[in-house]
Structure formats: structure tokens, C-alpha cells
Design brief:
This protein is α+β, with helices and mostly antiparallel strands. The chain has one domain. It contains 2 helices and 4 strands; from the N terminus they run αββββα. The strands form 2 sheets. It has a two-stranded antiparallel sheet. Strands 2-3 form a two-stranded antiparallel sheet. The mean pLDDT is 92.
């Protein structure tokens, strides 16, 4: 999340629009993969914000790996 962090230094807490990807992983038993977030302790689908010069496919792959 380097790009967003850098942007926040300049605009503070003002609203921004960002692009991101969410990944839906379903196994053969029709079970869905959820991740447990370490920052908020919530459960959700893997995903995150796009960095500069990334495609949506690259965002999805990076976020799933992370």
C-alpha cells in the first residue's frame, strides 16, 4: 500500500477514490477462502488497493499471495 500511504501524506484524511481487486477463491467442495485481517481482526475476502503501474490482474495475484 505504498502509493496510498504516500498520497495520504499530501492529502491527509480527505476522501480519495482508489482502484482495487477482490479475489474469490472457491475449492472443489464449493468452500470459499476467507482471510483473517491482522489489523482489524475481521474476516473477509482477499483483496487490496492497486499500486502505480499495476494491472488489476497483478493486483489480484499480489493480494492473494500476500
Amino acid at each position: 500500500m505504498g502509493y496510498i500511504r504516500e498520497l495520504r501524506k499530501h492529502i491527509g484524511s480527505r476522501p480519495i477514490i482508489s482502484i482495487g481487486a477482490t479475489i474469490l477463491v472457491i475449492n472443489d467442495d464449493k468452500k470459499i477462502l476467507f482471510q483473517h485481517r491482522s489489523d482489524t481482526l475481521d474476516w473477509g475476502l482477499p483483496g487490496g488497493s492497486m499500486e502505480l503501474n499495476e494491472t488489476l490482474e497483478e493486483v489480484a495475484a499480489r493480494e492473494l499471495h500476500e
